[in-house]
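Example (one chain per record):
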Amino acid sequence: MWKFLVKNQSIEILEREVLADHQIQYVQFKFTFDGDWKRFHKVVQFSQCDEVYSVVLGTEGTTLYLPAELHAGAVKMAVFGYDTESDTTVRATTVPVTLNIRESGFEGDEPPIPPTPDLYTQLLKRIEDAEHGLDGKSAYEIAVEHGYVGTEEKWLASLHGKDGITPDMSEYPKKSEVQTIVEQQIAPVAEESHNHDNKETLDAITPELFSDLSGLQQFEDSTTYELQTLTEAVENLRPSTHTHNNKAVLDRITEAMIDAIAEYPPFEDWTKEQIHTLFEMVNNFSNTAHTHENKVTLDALTPELFSDLAGLQQFEDSTQYDIQTINEALLTLNAQRHT
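Predicted structure:
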């Protein structure tokens, strides 16, 4: 169901749904009329391409079905009304709203579409209904509502009396007198009379309630303005909105942390310089770096051992001298020995 508010010369869409073509007596439109529109005789007009379809709401009507002849595409809808109680011609109109009808998935033979009656035909029908009473009930139906039991034929026969002879009607007013009474008293009342399904609700309306409604009208205008302002603010905010997967982490960042981060660049520069120097030192060292298979033995060498080695050098020289002397003595002795 679509819902509209007709106010002044505008139509505001309160509730909407997707519209598809090929529908028949299915999509319902409900109108709420504000201000002078409540007393106007109203007609809703749909136009598409060169075709125009009018639906009469009258004074009390508020709902209608979307004309089945409308097909997929854009449709203009407007409302116009007349003040039937004014001595001068008063006609109210609205700015049309655009409805977009989409293609449906209906396939197969086209169902017969009942044509929307033209405006003249609809008005004649309403006049005819008014002439037969607002409820359109016959005299027999009224008699049944008042307790009569029996068929319509029996009821018609009862009008002639029990013996089947037309009763004496001399004591009853003549047809011309009844016609006069109808024209002067009953007809004016019938024109003004009507029924309400919500009569108890309407009877509960008080002047105080209308005063409250007046305040609500001002509240509505204010709220509409505020909502418009909020909508504009949201639209302005939309281009800059974004989300963070690490929002919980970002929310823990403080100004002190930001200040500490400001001190990191000098530290970063100093660290880079130190690392560069270390790299140079490592490169210089790598040129002389080597390993020893006898690392355990070498690690056992001590300054004391080197001191002992210096003494061994002297011992080596002394020993060589002594051995040389002994060799010479042996050679001398060997030349003198005998058996």
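Caption: The longest strand covers residues 73-82.
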